[in-house]
Amino acid sequence: MTRTAFQTADFTAVPVDDNDTHVLQPLLDRCEDYHQIAYGRPALPDQARNIPRERPPTLAPGQGHLFALRDAQSGLAGMLEALRDFPAPGEWYIGLLLLAPEARGHGRGEAVLSAYADYARVNGGRLLRVAVVEHNDVGRRFWTRVGFQPEQWVGPIEQGLRMNRVLKMTKSLG
Ligand SMILES: CC(C)(COP(=O)(O)OP(=O)(O)OC[C@H]1O[C@@H](n2cnc3c(N)ncnc32)[C@H](O)[C@@H]1OP(=O)(O)O)[C@@H](O)C(=O)NCCC(=O)NCCS
Fold it and tell me: Where does the N-acetyltransferase domain start and stop, copy by copy (predicted)?
């Protein structure tokens, strides 16, 4: 039976267990544009498999959220990676919202964000935070449009082959 965390008009968010994260690799491979902007190279061959290992070591079980966004035919159209109650209770941190290139530009990212915000709210979330790399103009426009406000610049930090300044942005769920 497929477990569902939340749903939008187009997608079902299905939790991905830590042992199964390799199922996301084809999506990462198809999103070379994003990986070039963030890391200066395509996704690494084992990048999806490594997602659980890249979480902060202090997390309790269940704090790491990873969802496959599946379309009506069960095709992999996107993913959402986040941490609940990190770094503080009630603060939820979105690591990556990534849609397959052909799924973008139809308001579906906004629908996912809105459904995830509802999911966070009913589970005690008070604030969403995201960190956007300096040269991700599309991403920054997206987070601004869906109600995020700049909080703080951090870095430059080493990400793959790049040294990125990163803008932390927040949205209150109040
Ligand atoms: C960022 C991302 C998730 C946004 O998702 P999305 O579904 O494409 O976002 P939207 O459809 O809401 O907005 C994208 C564009 O489509 C337009 N759009 C929104 N609704 C639309 C609709 N119903 N029909 C046509 N266009 C629409 C928006 O105006 C926007 O254009 P603009 O940025 O030039 O103003 C997606 O682009 C993505 O996966 N990017 C790569 C990964 C990334 O950068 N993630 C963020 C960093 S964590």
Answer: 11-168
